[in-house]
Amino acid sequence: MRIDILTLFPEMFAGPFSESILKRASDKGLIEIRLYQIRDYTHDKHHVVDDTPYGGGAGMVMKPGPVVEAIEAVKGLSGDEARVILLSPSGRLFNEAIAADLASKPRLILIAGHYEGFDERVRAFIDDELSIGDYVLSGGEIPAMVIVDAVSRLVPGVLGSEESQVEESHSQGLLEYPHYTRPPEFRGLPVPEVLLSGNHAKIAKWRRKESLKRTFEHRPDLMENVTLSKTDQKLLAEIKSESDSEMRERLAEPEA
């Protein structure tokens, strides 16, 4: 997979892209990441990429010319069909399903904006628009890093274990179950006995229940999009019953 990133700050990507999984994937040729300075596609001696907004208002707006010329030039550098994605607060909320879809594409072009955003006419030259969350960032560089990391992990061969990919949080719509490793007890906190039992069926059931419990307690909104089996429904009923019992016990405790 090839990922081209158009940005005003290519130096920001050096650290995240030169470490860990992304570096190993790049070294193996599984992904190819290229960075392009949008200012290189200007035609004035000062390489100006922004201007004041028509109609007035605070801040500066990125001009359409340099961005569109960058898109067109970079698209022409490879014969692979590219999906052009604008990173913007008004885009679709990025999630695991979108990451999986993008991972199936041979090539992505990500456009990281800055200032008060893009001239609206830029949107006539893109295929998609994504946001990583409902909060304000200084620019699109960090969202680009997030998307590259999430998508790259789903490219075949990037992760050492395909099973790890399947079991990770959000890959099946649920948060991942708790993990434990040696020692079996740490500062009075033991590892759950079932994980030491060697009974793989019981371990699988425990992990599924803990995954459902963690999602129910911390991200109940995710439950709306998960298809639950009859076993899952039974486990979830147990979780809710246990939660109600714990709440009743806390309410019954005398105040100190």
Automatic annotation (TrEMBL):
Q: What is its main location?
A: cytoplasm
The UniProt entry's sequence similarity note says: Belongs to the RNA methyltransferase TrmD family.
Query: Which GO molecular function entries does the Swiss-Prot or TrEMBL record give?
Result: tRNA (guanine(37)-N1)-methyltransferase activity
**A Pfam family annotated for this UniProt entry:** tRNA_m1G_MT
- Entry's localization field: Cytoplasm
Name by which UniProt lists this protein: tRNA (guanine-N(1)-)-methyltransferase
**Domain called tRNA methyltransferase TRMD/TRM10-type: residue spans:** 1-224
* Gene that encodes it: trmD
The UniProt entry, under PANTHER family, shows: TRNA (GUANINE-N(1)-)-METHYLTRANSFERASE
In short, the EC number is 2.1.1.228
Q: What is the lineage of its organism?
A: Bacteria, Bacillati, Chloroflexota, Dehalococcoidia, Dehalococcoidales
Subunit description: Homodimer.
Task: Kindly state which keywords UniProt assigns to this record, in alphabetical order.
Answer: Cytoplasm, Methyltransferase, S-adenosyl-L-methionine, Transferase, tRNA processing
Q: What does this protein do?
A: Specifically methylates guanosine-37 in various tRNAs.
The protein's annotated catalytic reaction(s) are: guanosine(37) in tRNA + S-adenosyl-L-methionine = N(1)-methylguanosine(37) in tRNA + S-adenosyl-L-homocysteine + H(+)
* Gene Ontology terms: cellular component: cytosol
Q: Which GO terms describe its biological process?
A: tRNA N1-guanine methylation
Transferase listed as a keyword: yes
The coiled-coil regions, if any, are: none
- Binding positions (S-adenosyl-L-methionine): G113, I132, G133, D134, Y135, V136, L137
User: Native species of this protein?
Assistant: Dehalogenimonas etheniformans
Q: Which InterPro entries match?
A: Alpha/beta_knot_MTases (IPR029028), tRNA_m1G_MeTrfase_C_sf (IPR023148), tRNA_m1G_MeTrfase_TrmD (IPR002649), tRNA_m1G_MTases_N (IPR029026), tRNA_MeTrfase_TRMD/TRM10 (IPR016009)
